[in-house]
Amino acid sequence: MKRFYKSASTHLSDEEYEVHLDGKPVRTPNRNLLKFPTLALAEASASEWNGQAEKLEITEMPMTALAYAARDRVALDPEHFIQATAKFAETDLLCYRAAAPEALKRRQSSSWDPLLDWFTDHYGKHFIITDGIMPVEQPKETTSCVIEALRSLDNFRLTSAHSVADLTGSVVIALAMTNNAIDATEAFLAAHIDDQFQLQEWGEDAEAELRLSYRKAELDEIYRFLTLIS
After folding, report:
1. CB-based contacts of 28: which residues, under 8 Å, 6+ apart?
2. Which of the pair, 208 or 154, is modelled with greater confidence?
């Protein structure tokens, strides 16, 4: 889409914030008014609009794109996203440990045990850990707790949690990041211990490294989004 405006600015409206393009409020792809819960997030979105060249590139506007998702997708059916995100509790990455080698097992324990301890300390429930890839049934009270934790989130934080769980395969990582218990770098390192171990063992893999760099960038954007709404 060609740029059709001169400048973007922020405006307070009904205790929320809007971005206006030449005085007109931005609407989402579904024609909803794009409202932001904080001035900081609205200003970040306005900066993205002002930074566009002659052709608009939504891929270069991550704060705006995440806000679009919160308003157009998650707000339309939050329970769907709660259930989809909670599904990761049944096969959470942090619960499935390598049987060997010992070096990888130690790395997993060193990174993943503190995150599971955080979940237990924060929510009072625990996950069952297993070796290998055979499914293990998690306690009903734990999966129910995850659902309630996700239901307590507003649509912007739920958007973030769903995105993080989808990127990492872990609802524990998603909840920890959403609760500001870890940052994007910690989330990335925890989620990609196996990948990093393989790269160290087998040498450089340009395709794998590029994929990981994209994943890290996405987590960075989500973490920034969370800091701007906190």
Report:
1. 34, 68, 71, 72
2. 154
